[in-house]
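Annex B. Sample input.
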Amino acid sequence: MTQTTAPAPPAAVLSQRFAQRAQRYLTRAAVILILAASGYWLISSFVDNPVLFTSSAVAGLQNGALFALIALGYTLVYGIIELINFAHGDLFMLSTMVAGFFITSFFGVTVSGASFLGWVMFLAALVGCMVFGASVNVAIEFVAYRRLRKAPKLAPLITAVGMSFTLLFFGLFFGGSAPTSNWASLLPQGALDLGGVRVEYKFFVIIAVAVPILLLMSWIVTQTRTGKAMRAVAQDQDAARLMGINVNRIISFTFGLGGALAGVAGIMYQQVIGTTRYDLGFQFGLIAFTAAVLGGIGNLTGAVLGGVLIGLVKGLNDGVGLGQAWSQTVVFTILILFMVFRPTGLLGQTVGEKV
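Annex B, continued. Sample output.
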């Protein structure tokens, strides 16, 4: 029996394989080089001034928790209908103003400090901000986005930008163009001194509020019946309808969850930072959206991870790096590098386009 041998691949195929292999090696080498340089900078910064380094990291974690709360709202909506809701950052801005109204005007608190009655007021204001954020977000979905689900993707995207400017106008109308900083805080004042590192009591409060809420959101999406319906709608809306799922209700519920998270982030920012401004949503919304993309847009855990990482990077850069003037440059440089080497983000997965 004559044994035939397979023909050798042509030179063009061999050249393509060699180029792909060389590209993989270069990518790995670049990643290793970047990680090594980052590790060297972190270690040297810690050795030079461990107190300043740790203080900057604590401040970064505090901001990272806020970024994670806002980023979850972005990633929830995108995971369901693949829409980047640019109005989400401005909803966060309005929530900071509503929080100040609840605490200063409605409850009449003028002096900062913690008390039993103050904690009751804080919880009431927290619920009020969550209800406000959820209601506004559901209304936006019903009025602006629902009729555009079958439209080309550019139409809802432009509508989201328009809604962002609309909410920005409301913030300018009710809050004015100047920063507002005359609001009292119901959170404990002062700080702990841990080996020279000053950790404010507010840091523990924001972590104590953010972590359970983030875990609750994850539990709702992954363990509850509504969460299963959300994942079904994200996979295929038509198939979900055939299974008896009310798609409109599930999408509205998702927008409500995202708005409630914006409300939580709003009151925590107002109570921890103490100031707000009508254009605050642009900066924080952009950073939170960057966190969602960095972690893997549509992935809840990725949004939290991305928010914490960006918070740490921003805090360390402000404290022991290039300074606040370079914060935006550093954050978006890191995003660009990640998108070049890992377009799907840290925890994102490559999926086929829905048709």
